[in-house]
Amino acid sequence: FSFRAQVESTLRDVYSTENNLRFLMGLSSSDGRLIRPIDDPTTARVAFDWNEILPEALYRTPELRRQQWLIKRGEMQLIAARHQLLPQVNLTLLYRWLGLGDDFGLGHERNGINFPNAGSQDIGELTGGNYQESRVGVEFVPTKIGARRELAGIRNAQLNLARQSAVLEEMELSLSHTLAQAVRDLDTQYALAQTHFNRLNASEKEVESTLTLFEN
User: Which of 63, 84, 114, 145 lies 20 to 30 Å (CA to CA) from residue 16?
Assistant: First the structure.
């Protein structure tokens, strides 16, 4: 009964593994067939260099890259918030033609009457260029005294950046532990595979010896 319980438990594990394989392949959970490999598993040891797989995992994980872009955005927001404290100097240039007249004149022929005479048209004065003006100026906005709103914006950007950085550190730590567990499981499964292989050889020899004794 103990041996029977082991067989039934192992068969359950086979079905569970086969179901996971079906999920990865996009197949239904059951269709009357049991998917299993037809060749023997490889006995070669698969080893990974920790100094190579950890940086690659940190670089290729989409969640980490998305979080890094959020940090980059937070850094830009912090720079923009700090710029709000700087004084502003703006150079303004203006040049325009003005149209003056009693009527707009759109859709009518130009009558040649200039402003301020009666019957003058805006379009005619505008195209004639009789009234032009230009302006060059410099606008200076000094730093605000106190700047409570700007300082609050800077503090908010700093806190948001610190939060995003802490989230990234936590994600990297979780990824390193998950990767270490996968490498550890790989070594354990290889050792178990060797042990089961030795058990298989020993069982075959035991069967042969038992059959020989039974025939004798």
Answer: 63
Residue tagged 């797989």 (tokens): 53
Instruction: Show the CA angle centred on residue 26, arms to residues 23 and 27, nearest 5°.
Output: 85
How big is the CA angle at 101 (ends 97 and 105), to the nearest 5 degrees? 90
* Distance in angstroms (rounded) separating the CA atoms of residues 20 and 13: 11
> Residue 147: what are its φ and ψ, rounded to 5°?
50, 50
Checking if the pLDDT of 10 tops 70, the result is yes
Distance in angstroms (rounded) separating the CA atoms of residues 207 and 213? 10
**For 120-135, how does the pLDDT look when each residue is reduced to its tens digit (9 = 90+)?**
777 767 677 777 888 9
DSSP string, 70-139: HHHHHHHHHHHHHHTTS-EEEEEEEEEE----SB--TTS----PPTTSTT-BHHHHHHHT-SEEEEEEEE
Specify the residue for token string 């404290």.
85
Mean predicted confidence (pLDDT) in 6-30: 92
The pLDDT of 144-164, averaged and rounded, is 89
- Work out whether strand 132-141 and strand 88-97 pair parallel, antiparallel, or are unpaired: antiparallel
Sign of dihedral through CA atoms 77, 78, 79, 82? positive
